[in-house]
Amino acid sequence: MMPMLLHDKTAVITGNPYGIGRATARLFAAEGAKVVCIDDSDEGWTPAGGEARDTPRLFADVSDAGQVAAIVPRCERILGQVDILFNLAGRAEGQRFETTTLETWQRMVGRNLTAAFVCSQAFLPLMKRRPGGAIIHHGSIDGILGNPALAAYSAAKGGLVALTHVMAHDLAPYGIRVNCISTGAIRDGVARPKDAGLVGLTPAGRTGTPDDVARVALFLASEWSAYVNGANIVVDGGRTGITQGCYGS
Question: Which of 46, 60, 185, 187 makes an SS bond possible with 67, Cβ 3.0 to 4.6 Å?
Fold first, then answer.
């Protein structure tokens, strides 16, 4: 029997209390980690089969440095130290560049980029207590290629990739690795009208699931990725591996 990949590890997951967040919390717990989830509300949360009932859920606006600073001591009391931080918080609002308001811009940068910066800095003292830590950011393929319907969101997610590279360099002396997962068309079981079009652009022939992302997060959180640092792993079924002009020709 193989040992659990996250035996004796602790993890904080920010944002998305369902979907990817729920799948990752469940998988981390199954692999031996003690997990705390942080989100700004419990909207949309319902118990799921196989849920780790002893996983604490705390609430804070993770883009607000003051609220995050206040919640760190609570995590410390629960976990002792933090080995893994998954900055999953994010939200998309559709606006083209010329119609993007300053308010939307600030909201998208705050939720999708500033939150990762704030949480990483706030939890860093707890992560420095034990070498071998891992920070994982949740990016998007829109941050790689850009999406004209999501101007502010694309810019924020693109900044997250650059932040990953810088943090990987700066935190390496502490034994902390920093990587990013950029996803595309991940669905939580709810069918959407545009899914058929996305499947048509995806070589894998389907949309992704939260478990598809959670398994990559487990890899990046574990010793299996001990020599992976500063990487941006794309989980999109192959959509960014081809161009629309070539695909289907």
Answer: 60
